[in-house]
Amino acid sequence: MFAGSLIADSMKVSSKPQTLRNSQQFRRVYDQGQKYHTPYFSAFILRNEDAEQRYGITVTRKIGCAVVRNRCKRRLREIIRKFELCDLHLEGFDLVINVKTGLDKADFRQLEAAFANVMDRYRNLLNKRIG
């Protein structure tokens, strides 16, 4: 029984970014976060007290039907996974991405470049504030 609890505890520790769950978490990031705009999405980033990186993705109905909205979310989740937010060595932050109409037709490499640009701009802002 003791070994089982050790395994369960070790499985809880994950370097995978967590998701924002409720509207209060999203609202706090919208109100207090730093805004970055790209042709494909708007990103809101806010440092948090925790050491974990959390993200949320919003796609409105004006983007398209459910199939299109879900495809947009899958593409962004894959970009976040490939970018490995936890390996950035940044302190904890919350990230909210609002999808714009061009994302569903955009090339995946363009989306990756836009996301990398946003994260570089955020890192530069943090370095400027610290140094």
Task: Describe the structure concisely.
47% of the residues lie in helices and 20% in strands. The protein has 131 residues and is an alpha/beta fold.
Write a structural description.
The chain is an alpha/beta fold. The protein has a single domain (14-130), classed as Ribosomal Protein S5, domain 2, CATH 3.30.230.10. The protein has 4 helices and 5 strands. The protein has helices at residues 2-12, 23-32, 66-83, 108-130, and strands at residues 18-19, 34-37, 41-47, 53-58, 93-99. A hairpin with a 3-residue loop joins β2 (34-37) and β3 (41-47). The N and C termini lie far apart (50 Å).
Radius of gyration computed on alpha carbons: 16 Å
Helical fraction equals: 40-55%
Percent of residues in β-strands: 15-25%
Distance between the termini: 50 Å
Provide the structure class.
alpha/beta
Model regions low in confidence, pLDDT < 50 over at least 5 residues: 1-14
Number of helices: 4
| CATH fold-level topology | Ribosomal Protein S5, domain 2
Strand order of the largest sheet: 1-4-5-3-2
Mean model confidence by pLDDT: 85
> Helix-strand pattern, N to C?
HEHEEEHEH
- How many strands, what sense, and barrel or not for the largest sheet? 5 strands, mixed
General form: globular
What is the CATH C-level name? Answer: Alpha Beta
* DSSP E strands, number: 5
Label the CATH architecture. 2-Layer Sandwich
Q: Indicate how many domains the architecture comprises.
A: 1
Task: Write the topology of this structure.
Elements: H1 2-12, E1 18-19, H2 23-32, E2 34-37, E3 41-47, E4 53-58, H3 66-83, E5 93-99, H4 108-130
Parallel strand pairs: 1-4, 4-5
Antiparallel strand pairs: 2-3, 3-5
Helix pairs in contact: 3-4
